[in-house]
Amino acid sequence: MARASGKVILCGEHAVVYGCPAIAIGIDRGVQARAQRSAQPELRFGDVVVHDPDTLRAYHALLERLNAPCTATQVALEMPHGVGLGASAAVAVAIARAVSELEDSAPASERDARLLEAANAWETVFHQNPSGVDTACALAGGVIRFRRSQGFERLPLGTGFELAIAVAGPPMPTRQMVESVARIRERARERFQRDLDAITALVDNAALCLGAGDLAGLGQLLDYNHMLLSSWLVSTSEIEDAIRLARAQGALGAKLTGAGGGGCVIALPGEAGASAILEAWASAGYRCFSTHVPASP
Ligand code: PMV
Questions:
Q1: C-beta 134 within 6 A of ligand 1
Q2: Rounded to the nearest whole angstrom, what is the distance from the C-alpha of residue 147 to the centroid of ligand 1?
Q3: Which of 89, 138, 201, 213 could bridge across to 158 with cysteines, CB 3.0–4.6 Å?
Protein backbone atom coordinates (compact mmCIF):
# COMPACT_ATOMS: atom_id res chain seq x y z
CA MET A 1 0.00 0.00 0.00
CA ALA A 2 1.48 3.36 -1.04
CA ARG A 3 0.64 6.69 0.60
CA ALA A 4 0.96 10.42 -0.04
CA SER A 5 -0.01 13.38 2.15
CA GLY A 6 -2.31 16.28 1.50
CA LYS A 7 -0.84 19.75 1.99
CA VAL A 8 -1.50 23.32 2.94
CA ILE A 9 0.43 26.15 1.37
CA LEU A 10 1.77 28.20 4.27
CA CYS A 11 2.68 31.13 2.02
CA GLY A 12 3.43 31.98 -1.59
CA GLU A 13 0.47 30.46 -3.47
CA HIS A 14 -0.30 32.02 -6.84
CA ALA A 15 3.04 33.87 -6.78
CA VAL A 16 4.66 30.42 -7.09
CA VAL A 17 3.11 30.11 -10.56
CA TYR A 18 5.30 33.11 -11.59
CA GLY A 19 8.52 31.60 -10.25
CA CYS A 20 8.43 32.93 -6.66
CA PRO A 21 9.15 30.58 -3.74
CA ALA A 22 6.36 29.05 -1.66
CA ILE A 23 6.34 27.09 1.60
CA ALA A 24 4.07 24.05 1.84
CA ILE A 25 3.36 21.69 4.72
CA GLY A 26 2.29 18.06 4.46
CA ILE A 27 -0.75 17.40 6.64
CA ASP A 28 -1.61 14.29 8.66
CA ARG A 29 -4.37 13.38 6.21
CA GLY A 30 -3.62 11.88 2.83
CA VAL A 31 -4.38 9.23 0.24
CA GLN A 32 -3.59 5.52 -0.03
CA ALA A 33 -3.27 3.54 -3.25
CA ARG A 34 -2.79 -0.10 -4.16
CA ALA A 35 -1.80 -1.18 -7.69
CA GLN A 36 -1.63 -4.48 -9.55
CA ARG A 37 -0.91 -5.51 -13.11
CA SER A 38 -4.03 -6.19 -15.17
CA ALA A 39 -5.12 -6.83 -18.76
CA GLN A 40 -6.70 -3.35 -18.97
CA PRO A 41 -5.94 -0.11 -17.09
CA GLU A 42 -8.56 0.53 -14.41
CA LEU A 43 -8.92 3.10 -11.63
CA ARG A 44 -11.21 2.79 -8.61
CA PHE A 45 -11.97 5.26 -5.83
CA GLY A 46 -12.95 2.88 -3.05
CA ASP A 47 -15.11 0.31 -4.84
CA VAL A 48 -16.33 2.72 -7.52
CA VAL A 49 -14.80 2.37 -10.98
CA VAL A 50 -13.85 5.79 -12.40
CA HIS A 51 -15.50 6.76 -15.71
CA ASP A 52 -14.89 10.53 -15.59
CA PRO A 53 -13.03 11.30 -18.86
CA ASP A 54 -10.62 13.89 -17.37
CA THR A 55 -9.64 11.61 -14.47
CA LEU A 56 -9.08 8.72 -16.89
CA ARG A 57 -7.00 10.94 -19.17
CA ALA A 58 -4.92 11.97 -16.15
CA TYR A 59 -4.54 8.31 -15.08
CA HIS A 60 -3.43 7.24 -18.56
CA ALA A 61 -0.94 10.14 -18.77
CA LEU A 62 0.53 9.09 -15.41
CA LEU A 63 0.76 5.40 -16.38
CA GLU A 64 2.40 6.32 -19.67
CA ARG A 65 5.16 8.26 -17.86
CA LEU A 66 5.83 5.21 -15.71
CA ASN A 67 5.78 2.81 -18.66
CA ALA A 68 3.02 0.81 -16.99
CA PRO A 69 -0.02 1.09 -19.28
CA CYS A 70 -1.77 -2.03 -17.95
CA THR A 71 -2.29 -1.36 -14.28
CA ALA A 72 -5.36 -1.49 -12.06
CA THR A 73 -5.26 0.89 -9.09
CA GLN A 74 -7.53 1.34 -6.08
CA VAL A 75 -7.43 4.63 -4.22
CA ALA A 76 -8.67 5.45 -0.70
CA LEU A 77 -9.04 9.09 0.33
CA GLU A 78 -8.49 9.99 4.02
CA MET A 79 -9.03 13.71 3.39
CA PRO A 80 -11.60 16.12 1.93
CA HIS A 81 -11.38 16.44 -1.83
CA GLY A 82 -11.57 19.64 -3.89
CA VAL A 83 -11.03 22.14 -1.06
CA GLY A 84 -7.46 23.21 -1.82
CA LEU A 85 -5.74 20.67 0.42
CA GLY A 86 -3.96 19.04 -2.50
CA ALA A 87 -6.08 15.88 -2.66
CA SER A 88 -5.61 15.62 -6.44
CA ALA A 89 -1.80 15.81 -6.16
CA ALA A 90 -1.85 13.35 -3.24
CA VAL A 91 -3.92 10.93 -5.35
CA ALA A 92 -1.44 11.32 -8.22
CA VAL A 93 1.62 10.74 -6.04
CA ALA A 94 0.03 7.79 -4.16
CA ILE A 95 -0.91 6.14 -7.49
CA ALA A 96 2.55 6.81 -8.97
CA ARG A 97 4.18 5.30 -5.84
CA ALA A 98 1.93 2.24 -5.90
CA VAL A 99 2.59 1.66 -9.61
CA SER A 100 6.34 2.15 -9.33
CA GLU A 101 6.51 -0.25 -6.35
CA LEU A 102 5.42 -2.99 -8.77
CA GLU A 103 8.71 -2.92 -10.63
CA ASP A 104 10.94 0.07 -9.97
CA SER A 105 14.33 -0.75 -8.53
CA ALA A 106 15.90 2.62 -9.42
CA PRO A 107 17.80 4.58 -6.70
CA ALA A 108 15.53 6.75 -4.53
CA SER A 109 16.57 10.08 -6.09
CA GLU A 110 15.87 8.84 -9.65
CA ARG A 111 12.64 7.23 -8.53
CA ASP A 112 11.42 10.46 -6.91
CA ALA A 113 12.10 12.43 -10.10
CA ARG A 114 10.10 9.89 -12.14
CA LEU A 115 7.25 9.93 -9.62
CA LEU A 116 7.11 13.73 -9.72
CA GLU A 117 7.09 13.77 -13.51
CA ALA A 118 4.27 11.20 -13.60
CA ALA A 119 2.25 13.03 -10.92
CA ASN A 120 2.72 16.35 -12.73
CA ALA A 121 1.44 14.75 -15.95
CA TRP A 122 -1.75 13.90 -13.99
CA GLU A 123 -2.01 17.43 -12.55
CA THR A 124 -1.51 19.06 -15.95
CA VAL A 125 -4.76 17.49 -17.18
CA PHE A 126 -6.66 19.38 -14.45
CA HIS A 127 -4.63 22.57 -13.98
CA GLN A 128 -2.96 23.11 -17.35
CA ASN A 129 0.03 24.91 -15.86
CA PRO A 130 0.53 23.68 -12.29
CA SER A 131 3.54 25.11 -10.45
CA GLY A 132 4.30 21.64 -9.05
CA VAL A 133 4.19 22.72 -5.38
CA ASP A 134 1.27 20.36 -4.58
CA THR A 135 2.93 17.27 -6.04
CA ALA A 136 6.31 18.14 -4.47
CA CYS A 137 4.68 18.41 -1.05
CA ALA A 138 2.62 15.23 -1.54
CA LEU A 139 5.87 13.42 -2.36
CA ALA A 140 8.11 14.94 0.31
CA GLY A 141 5.66 15.45 3.23
CA GLY A 142 7.02 17.62 6.06
CA VAL A 143 7.75 21.29 5.43
CA ILE A 144 9.23 22.31 2.09
CA ARG A 145 10.29 25.45 0.31
CA PHE A 146 9.46 25.09 -3.37
CA ARG A 147 10.49 27.12 -6.39
CA ARG A 148 9.59 26.21 -9.94
CA SER A 149 13.14 26.60 -11.23
CA GLN A 150 14.74 24.78 -8.28
CA GLY A 151 12.32 22.11 -7.08
CA PHE A 152 11.95 21.60 -3.34
CA GLU A 153 14.16 21.65 -0.25
CA ARG A 154 13.16 20.56 3.24
CA LEU A 155 13.05 23.36 5.79
CA PRO A 156 14.36 22.94 9.33
CA LEU A 157 11.88 23.83 12.09
CA GLY A 158 13.03 25.31 15.41
CA THR A 159 9.76 24.44 17.09
CA GLY A 160 6.72 22.29 16.40
CA PHE A 161 3.27 23.87 16.17
CA GLU A 162 -0.39 23.21 15.45
CA LEU A 163 -2.10 24.64 12.41
CA ALA A 164 -5.87 25.09 12.45
CA ILE A 165 -7.59 24.51 9.09
CA ALA A 166 -11.18 25.41 8.13
CA VAL A 167 -13.10 24.75 4.94
CA ALA A 168 -14.51 28.22 4.21
CA GLY A 169 -17.00 27.57 1.47
CA PRO A 170 -17.07 25.57 -1.73
CA PRO A 171 -13.91 26.13 -3.74
CA MET A 172 -13.51 27.45 -7.26
CA PRO A 173 -11.45 25.35 -9.68
CA THR A 174 -7.74 26.15 -9.28
CA ARG A 175 -7.40 26.75 -13.02
CA GLN A 176 -10.10 29.44 -12.91
CA MET A 177 -8.47 31.25 -9.97
CA VAL A 178 -5.01 31.10 -11.58
CA GLU A 179 -6.50 32.57 -14.78
CA SER A 180 -8.23 35.33 -12.84
CA VAL A 181 -4.91 36.31 -11.16
CA ALA A 182 -3.27 36.26 -14.61
CA ARG A 183 -5.84 38.83 -15.80
CA ILE A 184 -5.02 41.09 -12.84
CA ARG A 185 -1.34 40.77 -13.75
CA GLU A 186 -2.09 41.78 -17.34
CA ARG A 187 -3.92 44.92 -16.18
CA ALA A 188 -1.14 46.22 -13.92
CA ARG A 189 2.13 44.44 -14.55
CA GLU A 190 4.37 46.79 -12.56
CA ARG A 191 2.20 46.66 -9.47
CA PHE A 192 1.91 42.90 -9.77
CA GLN A 193 5.70 42.59 -9.96
CA ARG A 194 6.02 44.64 -6.76
CA ASP A 195 3.57 42.25 -5.07
CA LEU A 196 5.64 39.28 -6.30
CA ASP A 197 8.80 40.86 -4.88
CA ALA A 198 7.05 41.41 -1.55
CA ILE A 199 5.86 37.79 -1.48
CA THR A 200 9.35 36.50 -2.30
CA ALA A 201 10.72 38.50 0.65
CA LEU A 202 7.98 37.38 3.02
CA VAL A 203 8.42 33.70 2.07
CA ASP A 204 12.17 33.95 2.70
CA ASN A 205 11.46 35.58 6.06
CA ALA A 206 8.86 32.93 6.88
CA ALA A 207 11.53 30.25 6.32
CA LEU A 208 13.80 32.13 8.79
CA CYS A 209 10.96 32.36 11.35
CA LEU A 210 10.30 28.62 11.01
CA GLY A 211 13.98 27.86 11.55
CA ALA A 212 14.17 30.14 14.59
CA GLY A 213 10.84 28.99 16.05
CA ASP A 214 9.55 32.58 15.86
CA LEU A 215 5.82 31.89 15.60
CA ALA A 216 4.75 35.48 16.34
CA GLY A 217 6.89 36.70 13.43
CA LEU A 218 5.54 33.93 11.21
CA GLY A 219 1.96 34.91 12.08
CA GLN A 220 2.55 38.51 10.96
CA LEU A 221 3.94 37.29 7.64
CA LEU A 222 0.86 35.10 7.10
CA ASP A 223 -1.37 38.14 7.67
CA TYR A 224 0.70 40.18 5.23
CA ASN A 225 0.53 37.40 2.62
CA HIS A 226 -3.25 37.26 3.00
CA MET A 227 -3.52 41.00 2.45
CA LEU A 228 -1.60 40.71 -0.83
CA LEU A 229 -3.70 37.72 -1.94
CA SER A 230 -6.89 39.69 -1.16
CA SER A 231 -5.66 42.48 -3.42
CA TRP A 232 -5.62 39.86 -6.21
CA LEU A 233 -9.32 39.26 -5.47
CA VAL A 234 -8.97 35.60 -4.50
CA SER A 235 -10.55 35.99 -1.06
CA THR A 236 -14.29 35.70 -0.32
CA SER A 237 -16.58 36.93 2.45
CA GLU A 238 -16.59 33.43 4.02
CA ILE A 239 -12.78 33.32 4.01
CA GLU A 240 -12.65 36.78 5.60
CA ASP A 241 -15.21 35.70 8.23
CA ALA A 242 -13.21 32.56 9.11
CA ILE A 243 -10.04 34.65 9.40
CA ARG A 244 -11.79 37.22 11.62
CA LEU A 245 -13.04 34.43 13.93
CA ALA A 246 -9.53 32.95 14.18
CA ARG A 247 -7.97 36.30 15.02
CA ALA A 248 -10.66 36.89 17.69
CA GLN A 249 -9.47 33.63 19.28
CA GLY A 250 -5.90 34.87 19.48
CA ALA A 251 -4.50 33.50 16.22
CA LEU A 252 -0.98 34.82 15.58
CA GLY A 253 -1.82 34.94 11.88
CA ALA A 254 -4.41 33.62 9.45
CA LYS A 255 -4.82 33.47 5.71
CA LEU A 256 -6.44 31.66 2.84
CA THR A 257 -4.45 28.71 1.57
CA GLY A 258 -4.33 27.39 -1.99
CA ALA A 259 -6.14 28.89 -4.93
CA GLY A 260 -8.84 30.78 -2.95
CA GLY A 261 -12.27 31.76 -4.24
CA GLY A 262 -13.52 29.48 -1.42
CA GLY A 263 -11.66 26.47 -0.09
CA CYS A 264 -9.53 26.54 3.04
CA VAL A 265 -8.22 28.98 5.62
CA ILE A 266 -5.25 28.30 7.90
CA ALA A 267 -4.64 29.90 11.28
CA LEU A 268 -1.55 29.78 13.48
CA PRO A 269 -2.87 29.49 17.05
CA GLY A 270 -1.73 31.81 19.82
CA GLU A 271 -1.78 31.18 23.56
CA ALA A 272 -5.44 30.06 23.57
CA GLY A 273 -4.40 27.15 21.32
CA ALA A 274 -5.95 25.53 18.27
CA SER A 275 -8.98 24.27 20.19
CA ALA A 276 -10.31 27.82 20.78
CA ILE A 277 -10.15 28.55 17.05
CA LEU A 278 -11.67 25.19 16.09
CA GLU A 279 -14.55 25.71 18.54
CA ALA A 280 -15.29 29.18 17.13
CA TRP A 281 -15.21 27.85 13.58
CA ALA A 282 -17.35 24.83 14.38
CA SER A 283 -19.97 27.05 16.12
CA ALA A 284 -20.10 29.19 12.97
CA GLY A 285 -20.69 26.06 10.88
CA TYR A 286 -17.23 25.64 9.32
CA ARG A 287 -15.82 22.12 8.84
CA CYS A 288 -12.42 22.27 10.53
CA PHE A 289 -9.55 20.28 11.99
CA SER A 290 -5.97 20.83 13.09
CA THR A 291 -2.71 19.27 11.99
CA HIS A 292 0.50 18.94 14.00
CA VAL A 293 3.71 20.16 12.40
CA PRO A 294 6.61 18.59 14.32
CA ALA A 295 9.95 20.31 15.04
CA SER A 296 12.97 19.01 13.16
CA PRO A 297 14.63 16.07 14.93
O1 PMV B 1 -5.07 23.67 -6.02
P2 PMV B 1 -4.74 24.48 -4.78
O3 PMV B 1 -5.90 25.15 -4.17
O4 PMV B 1 -3.87 23.73 -3.84
O5 PMV B 1 -3.81 25.71 -5.30
C6 PMV B 1 -2.60 25.48 -5.92
C7 PMV B 1 -1.68 26.63 -5.67
C8 PMV B 1 -1.64 27.68 -6.77
O9 PMV B 1 -0.46 28.41 -6.47
C10 PMV B 1 -2.83 28.61 -6.70
C11 PMV B 1 -1.53 27.09 -8.16
C12 PMV B 1 -0.24 26.34 -8.45
O13 PMV B 1 -0.20 25.66 -9.49
O14 PMV B 1 0.72 26.46 -7.68
A1: yes
A2: 13
A3: 213
The catalytically annotated residue of 54, 104, 134, 197 is 134
Question: For the whole model, what pTM was predicted?
Answer: 0.92
Write out pLDDT tens, residues 194-236. 999 999 999 999 999 999 999 999 999 999 999 999 999 999 9
Q: What is the 3-state secondary structure (H, E, C) of the chain?
A: CEEEEEEEEEECCCHHHHCCCEEEEEEEEEEEEEEEECCCCEEEECCEECCCHHHHHHHHHHHHHCCCCCEEEEEEECCCCCCCCCHHHHHHHHHHHHHHHCCCCCCHHHHHHHHHHHHHHHHHHHHCCCCCHHHHHHHHCCEEEEECCCEEEECCCCCCEEEEEEECCCCCCHHHHHHHHHHHHHHCHHHHHHHHHHHHHHHHHHHHHHHHCCHHHHHHHHHHHHHHHHHCCCCCHHHHHHHHHHHHCCCCEEEEECCCCCCEEEEECCCCHHHHHHHHHHHCCCEEEEEEECCCC
- 174 Cα: distance to centroid of ligand 1 (angstroms): 6
134 is known as an active-site residue: yes
Check pocket membership of 12 for ligand 1, CB cut-off 6 A: no
